[in-house]
Design goal:
48% of the residues lie in helices and 17% in strands. Strand 2 (71-75) and strand 3 (82-86) form a beta hairpin. The longest helix is centred in the C-terminal third of the chain and has 33 residues, at 109-141. By secondary structure, the protein is of the alpha+beta class.
Length: 150
């Protein structure tokens, strides 16, 4: 398994974010922005630093996007295909949410159960949102024998 978000090596986005997590004890967008503010920071170039165009809120959103972009690549033991999963997932503790390494979440039975429950809930929402499209596609493919109004 490898984590990636760019080229491999010590300067990868994955390695940079892991350094932030180890330095601060957790990985939250605010600490990523704090580390990236210095022009000499390896994270600095991942942000647009135009004071007039960017608010602090934008910088925090961008930091969260960077965290979510990092993937763990692995080869499936079922079919030998390469797959990927997010390297970090947000975990809420009280009023604070921090991104936690996926391997850490999956090694804790309670955190694992919560993550999988969330995944199932999101999958059902996704399925419910798009389920009707199969019926509509069948209706169109069949020559539109049902009622179609636009």
């Amino acid at each position: 398994m490898t984590a990636g978000g760019g080229a491999s090596g010590a300067g990868t986005l994955s390695a940079l974010l892991e350094d932030v997590r180890l330095k601060y004890g957790s990985l939250v967008p605010a600490t990523v922005v704090a580390e990236a503010r210095e022009p000499g920071s390896p994270l600095h170039s991942h942000f647009t630093w135009d004071e007039h165009a960017n608010s602090e809120k934008y910088l925090l959103i961008r930091a969260a996007e960077l965290i979510r972009r990092v993937q763990i690549r692995y080869v499936s033991p079922v079919d030998g295909e390469e797959r990927s999963v997010r390297a970090y997932f947000p975990v809420r503790s009280g009023t604070v949410s921090a991104y936690v390494p996926t391997e850490e979440i999956l090694s804790d039975p309670i955190q694992k159960a919560l993550l999988l429950r969330q995944m199932k809930r999101e999958w059902k929402e996704f399925e419910g949102r798009w389920k009707h499209m199969v019926e509509f596609a069948d209706l169109i493919a069949g020559g539109g024998s049902g009622s179609v109004a636009i």
